[in-house]
Amino acid sequence: MHLVCLGIIKKLLMLWMKGSLNVRLPSWKINQLSELIINLKPFFVCEFSRKPRTLIEVACWKATEFRYFLLYIGPIVLDKVLSDHCFKNFKALSVAITILLTPGLSEFVQYARNLLEDFIKSFEQIYGQHLVSSNIHGLIHLVDDYKK
Hints:
By secondary structure, this protein is mainly alpha-helical. The protein has seven helices and no strands. Keywords: Signal.
């Protein structure tokens, strides 16, 4: 959870909010994204221990909140604010992690590996090789850990 949620998802959010101009969202899109996130609050069932918070509070988010964003919130709201290539990159990670976390989807593990490899390659193309951290590289080993 920490590799993906506190490492990669937090990094992506920070890049979209404060990264280089080619990937940074304008402030009005960040506000729009925050509003979209908060609008989902009524739909979070009581089994979810934390309710969505705005991006202004992202520095205080817990790993669980980044996980919610990866698996549930991001796939719904990001297509409205991100460029197509950034959204496609995010979706590859989201679907791969969903497969690895969902019991009964073991026949899709190779597909998850392919998605993670695609995520890493496109991450480097979109955000730059200098931002490919050990967390990004570590994704390639998730499938091997899953199989153990």
